[in-house]
Amino acid sequence: MAAVRVMLVDDFKQWRATVRSIVEAMEGFRVVAEAGDAVEAIEKAGRLLPDIVLLDIGLPRLNGIEAAPRIRRTSPGSKIIFLTQEYDSDVTAAAFATGAEACLLKSQVVRELRRTIVAARQIPSRHLRREHGEDPYPDQRPRLPELHLEESNQS
């Protein structure tokens, strides 16, 4: 079976190196590209067609939420998983409104990344759902448990 091809998009080079080491330590996964901003990510996604795009929300030039639909157009089969520094319900809702398969706190990447990627890959692609007459933006997207536990630590 071919390895799951992952693209990392974050403007912080050290964070990309950390996530790269986590992904490459997971059997059956490999990083095929890194991008430091959304414009670079859109170009690389269209050229490399990764299976998974790990996309930071807070990017220079275009933020991740603005970039996600453009990545979808250039690489419609890619699953998008947003990575975010902190939980904000409005930002998370905006992220899911782009059709993203998941949203994961950066503080949970070590513990949850593999499970999140595996779950995201099981969600039917939006373009396939559209071909079968299904809503490409369902009101209730599949959710993964424990993605936003950090919110409870703020009390």
Give the helices and strands, then pairings.
Blueprint: E1 4-9, H1 13-25, E2 29-35, H2 38-48, E3 52-56, H3 64-74, E4 79-84, H4 89-97, E5 102-105, H5 109-122, H6 126-131
Parallel strand pairs: 1-2, 1-3, 3-4, 4-5
Describe this structure in words.
- The protein has 155 residues and is of the alpha/beta class.
- It has a single domain, classed as Response regulator (Rossmann fold).
- It has six helices and five strands; from the N terminus they run βαβαβαβαβαα.
- It has a five-stranded parallel sheet, with helices on both faces.
- α2 (38-48) packs parallel to α3.
- The longest helix has 14 residues, at 109-122.
- Mean pLDDT is 84; it is low at 127-155.
